[in-house]
Each structure stands twice: as structure tokens, then as C-alpha cells.
Amino acid sequence: MKRCAKYIPSVLLLILLMVLAGLYSMWLGIDVNFDLLNYHLYNPYAFLEGKTGQDLFAAGVHSALNPLLDIYFYKVFFAFFNAPKWIAFFMGLPYGVLVWLVYYFAKYLFRETDYPKIYAALAALIGCSAAGIASQIGTTTNEIPLAILNIAAFWLLLHGIRIQKAFPWAYAAAVVGGAAVGLKLSAAPFGVGLCLVLLVYLKRFENPHKVFGWYAACLAAGFLLTNGYFMWQNYVLYGNPIFPFYNHIFHSPYFADTYLTEFRFFPQNWLQWLFYPFYWAFQSAPTVAEAPLQDARLALWLCGMGVLGVLILKKRLKKLELTAASCLWIYGAAGYVAWLTQFSILRYAACLEALCGVVLVGLCAELGRKQWGVYAACLVLGVSMMGYQSPDWHHEMFLEQAVVFNQKPQVEDDSLVFFMHLPSSYLAPLLNPKATYMGGFKSIPQEYPPEFRERAAQRNNISAQYYQFRFEEAQRQKIASHTGPIYIVSVDWPMIVNPATLARFGLKGKRENCQRFVNNFTVYSTDLAICRVEKINE
């Protein structure tokens, strides 16, 4: 009982932080971000309801992404469909877990300092209030759960290195880190950092070659555990196990032979490559996100990493353990470089943001004497809040249900529903889960009358990289073989029934067969419509 009793305060703190995070998420409103409407609701629905392979790219290329992280949201969404405030509450809980984890991790690192609890609290406050993390509280972006897994994996590895025992610590770290990468490739930079830390300290273990082999096997096992099935599924369906990424290697016929990433967020010159965080530290601009932000934390962290690196090289650390500080520096540096060169999207750097306070407060504790270290850490917190602006991925007020239609369209069980524009696939489980759904429409502005061409062109500018798909032949075959009713859904009324566009797919339609509708999730266009169409040869 005594052994269990010592964990009671930490468990109570975890519960308190989770409740506070849930309440804050409720205060924000219900999450209605673009990716939720596009695939975060559709993908787990398709997986759990056996629609994968039956539907055809209902969420465009994002239909192929791993749905496991979204299952939690999907279950919560429909469990509390008639009480949407609880959806927001439960979606906020992971943030509380992240704050708790960062606090205890920092306390573990600062155990030899004068005020370990105060330093740990300040480190968690600085890191977990960063713009990228704060903007994702209660959302379906899934970077907060990934940060939890990544930090947990690093802590396990660090502990194994400190006590020089690979089993079970290093191997558990490999499984957890590999699982995080398998769940979402945006965790890969921190998998790189994890591996580099192990390589640097590999000789700390007995039989380092054996340890490395087992570590690699555990890393692969964790990755395959969360992504193996979906890679096999993607290879069977699309010819690319990680479709649509790295298609210049796999050559799936459904996408261009190109390296796919969001180049619009990459640094544009060598100064930005070297000092990228400083560009959003002192001005509000959508440099590394889809919405404007301003936050100095990662800029301060870069400066702190420079100072910490010098102290480590000169072995001038007194209050921070050299091994722990070195591992933290290697992990952060490797993760940052990999993130910058592969993504450069701030919300993907949640793990770095969460740990930035640990580095900054650790330096304050190291360089300050007694309470002056605490004062310095408070000053860092104050500086990090200057000009602070966190992006908002869009929230809506709560209604009596999660999604409320003004007039819900009726779709028969044997229907084929063609989502002609993004983001629409969230409608699939709401309209009729038994129908078949298809998406990935690519509009050609020249097909439309002059008054609609600019609007049609904008539909191809949502994310230009993702419009390199080649679905049209498969779409035509799907339509030709379908024997039941066919509907098209568009967010661009009244250009939805343009004859030239429909003819591309062997379809024809009339505007009198269209029904306009709206719901509280219709935030990217108020011009939703569903139209019953027919095949040209009928």
C-alpha cells in the first residue's frame, strides 16, 4: 500500500490537468478544422465500417492515411453526438496528459537543482503554452498525442542510458517511438532524434551490437504494429505502401511521380534556413502555418541550445547531469533539423515546443544562483509571451447536436455519392453509412462559364501539391459500373451542374434535381448542394 500511496499525488495531478484541459477545450467550442471535415472523421468511419476499398478516394489522397489516431475522435463524436460539449471535453484531455508528462520529465531532469518542482512547473508552462501546441488543444490534428508518445519514448531511452540497462528501457523506447512514426509520419523527425541518441551512447551498454540489433527490431515492430496493416492495404489498393508520399519511388498510377510535401512552408533563403524561428518570433505572419501566428519560444530555444551546447562541450554543467543534458541536446537538435528539412510546419513540431521550456529553464537553473534561477525562468516566460498570437483552426458554437442540418438530404442505401469538392467527406457517415462514396474531383476552370472560372480555379488552390492525383479513369469506371442512384455533392452552387464537367464522368444533370443545404460545419462555403444525376447513356 505504501508503494501505491506515493503515486496518488501524481495521479491526482494528472486527473486535475486533464479536467482543466477538457474544460478549456469546451470553452473554445467545437472543433471544425478543414482536415476534420476532409478526413479525420471519414477515415476512421471507413476503416471501422469496412468501407476501405469499397469507397473510392472519398477524402481525396488523404483517404489513404492511417486512421488509428482518429478512432478516439470518431467514437467520442458519435457517443456524444447529442451532447457536443462532451466531444470538446474529451478531445481536450490529451493536452492535460502532455502537461503532466512534461512536468514530471522536467522534474526528473531537475532533481539536483535547488527548486525542482518550481523549475519543472515553469518548464511545462513555457513549453505547453507554445503557439503550435496551444492551437491544437481539443482538435483532431493529433500532434499532441504524438508529442506524448515521443517524449515518453525519449524519457525511457534516457533512463536506460543513465542506468546502463537496455532492457527494458531502450527497447520499450524503440517500440513507443516506432509506433508514433507508424501512426503519423510527422513523428519521424523525433524517431530520427531517438536513434541518434542511442547511437551516440551505444557503448554505454554491454554488447552494443546486440543492443543495436534488438533496438532496430523493436523500432520496426512498433512501426509495423501501428502501420503495417495500412501499408499493406495501400500497396494492394494503390501500389504505394505510404501513398501518396514518395511516389517518385513507388510510382502509383493514382498520383504524380513526385516527392510530396508542403513546400509552401519551407524556408525560402539561407537566412531562413539558419534562423527560421526568428521569422515568426517578432512578426505575425503565416510563415509556418496555415494561419497567422507569433511566438518567440523556438527562437529562444535555439539560443538556449547554443548556450547549452557550449556548456556541454566544456563540461561546465554543475546542476544538470551531463548525460541527461547531452541526450536532450542531441534529441532536440536532430529532431529540429529533420523537422525543418522535411516539413517546416509548426504544428508538427509539438514535441520540440513541449521540450523547449525544459532547455530554457534548465539553463536558468544552471546559471542562476538559488532563487535567481527561478526569477530568470519567470523572465523567460514573460519574454516568450510578448506579441504572442496562437492560430485558430476554427471552432463553432455548440448546438443541440454535433452537426445540425437545416434540411438533411435523403440518400438511398444503394447510392453512389460523388464529393466533387473538399472538404465534404465528413458527410459520409451522416448522410447514409450504407451508401458508397467517392471523391478526389479535379475541377478544370476552362470548362465553366466565365463568371464561374475564378471560383473553380480557387478550388485547385487549397493545396496545390495534393491536386496531382490521377483518379479520373477509376472514377469513370466506378460510375459506369454502378447500378443504383448517383448523387454529386459540391460546395460551389450553382456551378455544380456544369454540363461539360459532368460529361467528363459520363453524367448529366439538371438544377431542378438539386437540393441546397447547410449545417453548422459548413464553414468553408455556405453553398452546399446535392444533386441527383444520371448517366448520359440512360
Supply database-style keywords:
8 strands; 538 residues; 2 domains; 6-stranded mixed sheet; single chain; elongated; 53% helix
Count of DSSP H/I helices = 22
Main beta-sheet strand count, sense and barrel state: 6 strands, mixed
Strand content: 5-15%
The unreliable regions are none
Gyration radius (Cα, Å) is 25 Å
Given helix and strand content, the structural type is mainly alpha
What is the ordering of alpha helices and beta strands?
Answer: HHEHHHHHHHHHHHHHHHHEEHEHHEHEEE
Helix share bin: 40-55%
Number of strands: 8
Quote the distance from N terminus to C terminus.
76 Å
Shape: elongated
Oligomeric state of the chains in view? single chain
Mean pLDDT: 93
| Total domain units | 2
